[in-house]
Design brief:
The protein is of the alpha/beta class and 363 residues long. It has a single domain, classed as Rossmann fold (3-Layer(aba) Sandwich), CATH 3.40.50. Helices cover 34% and strands 14% of the residues. It has twelve helices and eight strands. The longest helix has 16 residues.
Length: 363
């Protein structure tokens, strides 16, 4: 099914004949629907956000190029729906998080709701990877559960909209809704750590840029696992064995590029699109990082995005000379893209979880 759905040597000349919905379905079918996370390791519960109940001032988008008008349209569309659109999310608690939070509540079941157990409780807002096309909170439950366990912190994992059904900036819009929802629930910006892997790392960075453009408070910090920060120019070649990476990337010239499917599925590549891909809300590395929140970047030593992650680290560091330690970049030799998800049994994953925990506890 997977190979049958993907045309041979596709080009923009034949883009109208490509069934992007079928291709997305084939890609999604190639992944497991969930990963095992035994109940004995912790608890989880699914919820949904009524998007009509999250007030977003669209006037704050007025000065934002490229994404601003589109975001305003998406917000207005949600408000005009007769039946509210629901954004699904899941609360995940490792046993260590339960032990830490249980003394602050009368009923342990309340920990499975998205409300602070006490003033100043830290919470992780997590956006999964999958190239903006695939990925689910069920698939990531083992990883988010292990992060919760390692950091003794609740994780809120969000099922944002995917492409090609929903083009840019629908994914970013959902991250903004989730962040504003946590604020409405009583969490302070200083208590929220935004995290994600790959495409989810991209969204974490883009959300933080968006909040700064809107003059809204930034999160306490960011945890980025193999983030995709530069969608216009990849820096994949860095002298290491990137061919051992598991990430397969179609070039931007291909209509099957995950970047183009995310941004404008079915649209030919134009000079205007290339320019728009340099927006910091699409390619976060093009934004300003002066005064950016503390950031942790976890990278596989042989992954395709090693060069981009290194460039991201250097840019954050160079733009904050008076803030030593504002950014930390850990590289794990021989590890591929988002190794924490696929190689959960490896000592490198255990070390990465330890670094995530240490970073969060320093915030």
């Amino acid at each position: 099914m997977y190979m049958a759905a993907i045309p041979h040597h596709p080009s923009d000349d034949s883009i109208e004949a490509i069934d992007f919905q079928n291709i997305a379905a084939a890609l999604r079918s190639g992944f497991p629907t969930s990963t095992p996370w035994p109940r004995k390791k912790g608890l989880s519960r699914g919820h949904c956000i009524n998007t009509k109940e999250i007030a977003i001032d669209t006037s704050l988008f007025s000065t934002i190029d490229v994404a601003g008008p589109k975001l305003a349209t998406l917000v207005q569309a949600d408000m005009e729906l007769q039946e509210p659109r629901m954004l699904n999310y899941e609360v995940i608690l490792g046993n260590a998080a339960i032990r830490k939070l249980e003394p602050h509540v009368h009923d342990i079941g309340t920990l499975l709701d998205a409300q602070p157990a006490f003033s100043g409780e830290k919470v992780i807002l997590y956006f999964h990877g999958g190239g903006w096309i695939s990925g689910t909170i069920d698939l990531y439950r083992k990883l988010t559960g292990e992060i919760s366990q390692a950091a003794s912190t609740r994780v809120i994992s969000v099922a944002y909209r995917l492409s090609p059904e929903h083009a840019f900036p629908a994914h970013l819009h959902d991250t903004l809704i989730a962040y504003c929802f946590l604020l409405k629930q009583g969490f302070r910006p200083a208590d929220i750590i935004v995290a994600g892997d790959s495409a989810g790392g991209n969204l974490s960075l883009s959300l933080t840029h968006l909040l700064r453009y809107m003059d809204l408070p930034s999160p306490a910090g960011l945890v980025l696992l193999s983030p995709a920060s530069n969608l216009r120019y990849y820096q994949g070649t860095h002298g290491l064995d990137t061919y051992s990476d598991l990430l397969v990337v179609n070039p931007l010239e291909s209509p099957l590029s995950m970047i183009r499917i995310m941004y404008a599925p079915g649209q030919p590549l134009s000079e205007q699109m290339k320019k728009e891909l340099e927006s910091p809300l699409v390619s976060p590395i093009f934004g300003s990082f002066a005064g950016f929140p503390p950031t942790l970047i976890e990278t596989g030593g042989c992954e395709f995005l090693y060069g981009d992650n290194s460039a991201l680290y250097e840019k954050i560091k160079s733009q904050n000379p008076d803030m030593p330690g504002i950014v930390q970049h850990d590289v794990y030799d021989g590890m591929p893209h988002v190794f924490q998800l696929i190689f959960s049994y490896r000592p490198e994953t255990a070390k990465s979880l330890e670094m995530i925990s240490s970073f969060i506890h320093r915030l």
